[in-house]
Fold:
Amino acid sequence: MSEALKIIQDPTLTYRQELVGLAHLGESTDDSLRYSDAYYTAKKKGALCDLNEGVMPFRPRYICPDYELLFQKGCGFLQLDPPKDLLEAVNVLEIFYCHVPSITTYPVYLGDLDKLLEPFVIKEDREYARKVLRLFLRNIDRVQTDSFVHADIGPEDSVTGRLLLELTEEMQLAIPNLTLRYDPERTSDDFALACIRCMLKTAKPSFANHRMFVKEWGERYAIASCYNGLMIGGGGFTLPRMRLYECSLDAKNPEDFLDLVLPRFIDLQLEYMDKRVKFIVEESSFFKTNFLVTEGFVRQENFIGMFGLVGLAECCNHLLGIQDKKKGFGMNQEATQLGIRIMDAIEKRVSEHEAPYCDAFDHHYRLHAQVGIETDGMDNAPGTRIPIGAEPTMLEQLEVNEKFHPYFPTGTGDIFKFEETYLKTPEAILPIIQGSMKNGLRYFSGYLENNDVVRVTGYLVKKSEIEKLRQKKQSLNQVTVFGMGAQDGGHALDRRIQHHEESAG
Structure:
């Protein structure tokens, strides 16, 4: 049976999902863009992965338009005037979103919604504003049906931010993903606690270390897709990844890996990125004719190449001959230190590589801790995370995570599944977030173990929707199938926080 026939006969796919699947299939059938034989060999053995980008790139992977500019001047191509009130504002956004492409075919960044909408919200009766925002969120959930769709709020408290939190709790939607840009000097404890309560009940918002991102990107940065840090008015050209465990299988020992094996795979991934970025800029029509570019909503120089990796834990454990993951990376000082040596080596080699089209970033790519995909199984924990089933206490996990998060300006994150008792004491979580971010944690996510809306790796799904798929029924959320695969193959929803008494025993 052909791949196309499999797609159109799949009873679990909606019409839009079939279109997306057929489009990706078509994108992968051309061979105009070629790489070295060594790259294809590395890809075939699973050491390198292109994250299903397709062989003929016709747009950047992630796009973060300047929505403030949209509100200032409107959009000529879409015949949209600057909005004058709240209803016009959400209508302009809803139309614009449908014309923002990405690897998913859906927009991965919806804007800093509180800042965008606050000037309009405060002029309206609260209940009217609440009704409009409710319909706005419903539109996003039903039209932008992919939970890589992401919006940001904060760092300051606002009427709009509060309403969005209220509605998120009330509506229990997996779409859009949501992040609070958290700064202890600008974010009130009361607002942070409201976000924590919402996070526990709906798996969002996550907490981004605002000071860290501002230092690396400036004030105008976006958290997009899963937890990707990118520049507003730009985005990410591409995001391939090294699967470090598979890379380590070529090494005799840690030194052989660091001296010979790792540099070889880094260079092959850089080859892929260079050729892909060059093709997008020079050969595709996106930066020449797309209205997002011609009207200034994005600029080519604000895009970055994202050098991804996954499976650091398993890589370290394998190189050191550690069989029991509960005694390995994250729990074993030697393994964790090896992880730091590996990250130092990757960072150094990538930072020395010249990337011609990354103008805003001194012509360099930046690192990304990729979340993992449904086919990874148990051999590659997301990014630099401690593997599921080997989790120590929360504080011990954070102590490890704090060492690795600074390596990844384009994104990394960790997820904690809390017990129901935390609903009664959300204030116990805030100092944990504050302390860990002070020590270098970039991104913090959590949810309650009994939630319907859960965070799988960086994206959100509903457990009830996963059950629909198991019954061969359709799910509106494009990524529900990824969530089911991640749970079945990698037990992604089984993560836990070990208690101190367990650790001691």
About this structure: The longest strand covers residues 303-310. The mean pLDDT is 94. Residues 238-386 form one domain. DSSP finds 21 helices and 15 strands in the chain.
